Amino acid sequence: MHETDDDLARLQALLDRSYESAGRHLRDVITPERRLSAADLAARLQGLCLLVLATVTRDGRPMAGPVDGIFYRGAWYFGSAPDARRFSHIRHDPAVSATHLPSEEFSVTAHGRATLIDVHAREQSGFRRALLDIYVPRYGPDWEAFLDGGAVYARIDAERMFTFCMPAADAPESPD
User: Fold this and answer.
1) What is the CATH number of the domain that holds 22?
2) Per-residue model confidence as pLDDT tens digits over 89-99
């Protein structure tokens, strides 16, 4: 886990604010027992987590697609090629939404703004190390050259974030 105590406190405050501002339907689905604490969430989101990321086109249409998500210091990060359409959208309008949904029993959704980051900047050295720890064992040492060859990354500065966790034993049985 990369989160500091301050990161976890900020994340918990965000989760609480988000829940308090949620509509009735969302609160009916995400009951207090189905929420995760910031510490539980950070412990659960280790390594690569696939996200569905939604960006906004110049003419206001939503576009969603998969990205590798990295949860680091209490925020989602994602990357792509510098000429990827999603980064063109973000440069024009940084509004984004992202959902990690590995199963019907667990999800995390964030709504906010994407902030471009420089993985070579000194203040991003911890994040860069996290990327290398995730991707080099998976793709080999050449992955660092890929990272240095122009990959771009952004952080989602979430304005709202919702968690949902229902243990499989508590989930309703599906009809056969």
Assistant:
1) 2.30.110.10
2) 999 999 999 99
